Fold these 2 entries.
Entry 1:
Amino acid sequence: MFSTMQDQAVQELHFCQQGSLEAVIAIHNLTLGPAMGGCRFIDYENEAQAVTDALRLAKGMSYKAALAHVPQGGGKAVIMKPKGSFDRQQLFKQFGRFIQSLSGRYITAMDSGTQVQDMDDIRSQTTFVSSSSNIGDPSPATAQGVVLGMLTAVQFQLGQNMQGLRVAIQGLGHVGMALAKQLHKEGAKLIVCDVDAQKSQWAQQAFDAEVVPVDDIYRQECEVFSPCGLGSVLNEKTIPQLQCKVIAGSANNQLATDAMGKILHDQGILYVPDYVINSGGLIFASGRFRGLSAQQIGHEIFRLKDTLNKIFILSKNKKLASHQIANAMAEQVLYGANAHNINAEMQEAV
Ligand code: NAD
């Protein structure tokens, strides 16, 4: 366990088992402020899988906050979905008390499997929660950032705007559907898929999108591939199928391994680092929690453009993959002079 924590540089791991609640909170780094990150409530095959998920995701949140100029540390919570029947409201209230016991070191928010009502139940026990109904769903802000990031990447890579460009969107959930709507407005031609056929049909009717089977999305001829469903979708099986020039989507942990980012770079595909392009949600959740105005939050999301341009330019000039540059920049913010111990070659580059 400790060696896994060390691998991800996670500082704290907290467990709670009470009634039907089996929860883990991972706190990666508190240098920039209290840790903030969503709470997952999904099926896990075993405890080890749940812990690994929490550790990996907490690290991603630290890096996301670092490059989004958000004064929060990285943290993530995972609740193992009980196998049998359970009282959902009681479970999330119990989880709220668990969060309260950490005295503000971790602030939770919505993630896969949780909803606003759950956040409200948590809020009945602790104030260390965002995306409750008084704060709102971060997804529109995430989608706003993804549109901006995609435009920035397309301008950099292809020297044009979205008019007439083909964008293949994988997953039409809270973020993917909002993204489709905005890209349709910008004049892009959409190719879409979702495991939920109703969502695809909706996009077909509303945005004149072409619907393709889920397994065919990778091989679509398009300028942009936008993963907005699951993680690890860029892997040895899918990358050889890709026909795109840019990858820009909201999903967390899109690269199955770091080596995949290098392969994309070598193939001349511009990969927009996931935790940078999808940081609008964190900017929103943290901003609202800290009492920023909508205008201030919008301004913070817009800064994403400069960060991405810096990553793209460094990646091109230094001949290093975009995710390597992004990681080195984040480590510089988090660890300062000590970052050299972590990744000397990359730190030199940024
Ligand atoms: P969501 O659950 O609302 O939507 C995900 C969609 O993807 C669903 O419609 C689902 O049916 C579909 N999907 C799942 N597997 C698929 C597959 N193999 N092929 C095609 N479609 C598939 O989630 P969301 O809030 O829209 O988030 C999308 C992604 O972005 C997630 O990976 C999430 O972690 C990430 N993200 C979301 C936010 C946010 O603010 N919502 C912020 C940062 C990152």
Entry 2:
Amino acid sequence: MRILVTGGAGFIGSHYARTLLDGGHAGFEDAHVTVLDKLTYAGNRANLPAAHDRLEFVQGDICDLPLLLDLVPGHDAVVHFAAESHVDRSLDGAAEFVRTNVGGTQAVMEAAYRSGTPRVVHVSTDEVYGSIDEGAWTEERPLLPNSPYAASKAGSDLIARSYARTHGLDVSVTRCSNNYGPYQHVEKLIPLFTTNLLSGLEVPLYGDGRNVREWLHVEDHCRALHLVLTKGRGGEVYNIGGGDGRSNTEITERLLQLCGAAPSMVRRVADRKGHDLRYALDDSKIRAELGYEPRIDFATGLADTVRWYQDNPRWWKPLKDAGAEGAPCAS
Ligand code: NAD
């Protein structure tokens, strides 16, 4: 069994790759893992074992079709994580998001189709649905993305769907809520606030802090992805929900408490342009069809995550020094 993981040096892709290499998915203990990653500012080779007899690391761009046509044949599955993933960056420059997320996904689907790859999972996000004041989105909801990031992910979802419909590629699309956990880049909300507080810096909270997101531990997300890979149906979309929604204010208060910091460490900053108010997923499809349910409750997962950042300054301090400490918070 050979699995190609694109974006496997990023936060979620590396968690999935490490779990496979650690034998954490039953029946896949012998799986060979190829990671294809461009190592953008968000990719970090140190997120993966330096050497492992079942790991091959390839530095390259998912937009490079000749490279993909060389690499993809012989793999039994592709799990496609690679993307530009930070909403705030997409507000300053959307072109790279369209290039990588739309163009790159098209190249990955094309290479999988031409290589006869038996199974593909395209990893997407709840942000493609837009913003919802009450209730929750099912997979049937129309895509109404608001940020350039979300629009580029919506485009990538439709590209994946077109390869399923037109070419019969066995590809499923997943749409997950916000993830948290170890190895997440310090530009994203929870690591940014945690590492700021651990460094004695203020945390920049957008607007009135009422924006609500569902938070799912990266381990639950990766377990759901593996269920979709092994049991999901091609051509289908699966929402991967994270349970209760939390406002940015609540997240901030919890992090202040876990880091032992005072409320005066919060600095209000102007709201993000076009900031979506609330995301909420109806994930009854994946629960009923594939038996998924999250296992890590938020209070425990968040405390473990803060502890990981406390214990691993050598991982995050270089990223912080590269300039992420003052950036506004993520979605
Ligand atoms: P990340 O930014 O941490 O990692 C992205 C990885 O992709 C990096 O290693 C980067 O080097 C690589 N990459 C970027 N452009 C590339 C290119 N052109 N070619 C090859 N590699 C490239 O992102 P993440 O948080 O791990 O997200 C992974 C996927 O999950 C993304 O598709 C994202 O849209 C989706 N997702 C993320 C979340 C979340 O909360 N983080 C939630 C739902 C869905």
